[in-house]
Design brief:
Order of helices and strands: HHHEEEHEHHEHEHEEHHHHHEHEEEH
Mean pLDDT: 88
Strand order of the largest sheet: 1-2-4-3-5-6-9-10
Number of strands: 12
Distance between the termini: 40 Å
Helix content: 40-55%
Shape: globular
Strand content: 15-25%
Structural class: alpha/beta
Number of helices: 15
Amino acid sequence: MNKKRIFILIFLVSCVLLILLFLKPLRAAVKTTLLLSEYSQVIFDKHSPRPLLFLTKAPNVKKITINTEKGPMDADLYLPANISGRKSAVVYVFGITDTFYGPRLVQSAEAMARIGVVTLVPHLSNFVYRRLIEDGVIDQLTDSFRYLEKQNFVDSKKIGFVSFCVGGSLALIASSDPKIAGQVNFVGAISPYYDLTSLEKAVFTNRYRLNNKDITWTPNIQTLGVSRREILSLSLLPIIDRMIILNGFRTNKLPAGQFNKLSTRGKMDWQIFTFKDRVLTDRLLDEFFHGIGKEAHDSFSPSKHIDGLKAPVFLTTATGDKYIPLSESDQLAQALQERNKEVHFTRSGILDHTLPTKKLPPTTFLIEVVKIWILVYDMVMRIS
């Protein structure tokens, strides 16, 4: 073989190796761009193009039932149109205020399936009733993960969680469970809470701590409503107390004489809900969190579970979030770093809680889009 042929052979082999080397990153980059392009209509206007719709086939959606430790649970399975071979997969966990067939959830789940990821949306029993704390919900998530592991069209080494709001917190707790912790490939979470106690303190005192400073904060009415329901449920109040308090929520005050009709626990709850004195509210909340609310809040706080977490975490949060304080994601990222856990964290100025809806100057907008793109790209690389 002469030198010219040897050179040509070496050149061709080198080209093949370079293509193989960069093929996965390139695929991940394309998938990331297509995935994020699905939100162009939210950022710009409803007529913005959605290239994913033209370049990929619609997924097949199956309604399934998963047998969990809590009992049978409905779920939706979004399958890529081309299901040949073993695919990466995710358990998709949304927040309390989303409905299982709402346009935002469906569009997001379909987008994941269109880029080739099997996507499972479990119908968590607590979300059906707009609740957070409920026995057996974490088991429903771990059983959802194990369901995917058993499917012959899923690569069991490439299964993760994609999650939003309080769904992110539940996904982190589930991923820390010894039953699946060693098998979870990654956890993606947008605006989760770190500790349910600190979240509810922020909700009821209108402030949170960040960088050793008190930050004034007014929670969204939906966050306030969920927090009120959880405390009312755990307090086990008499029916008459619940009726008085629920009626009082309409105007945020009680008619003359109604407060004195409440039980001692009912009076404490009403004082928490209406926040007039910071010192009093802090004391009442501390008594609640260290008493009848302790077990439930510990069970549903990632802060009490992440020691068992093994998967890398891809975390972002809105800097001006009105649903979950910025401090919650900051605390989570710091706690993971202190435990030598892998965490990729970015604050986002373009997000309004979990959607990119903030209007920003062009340069700032571009910087924020790049930050989100890099985070999502790193996550997509895990399962490509």
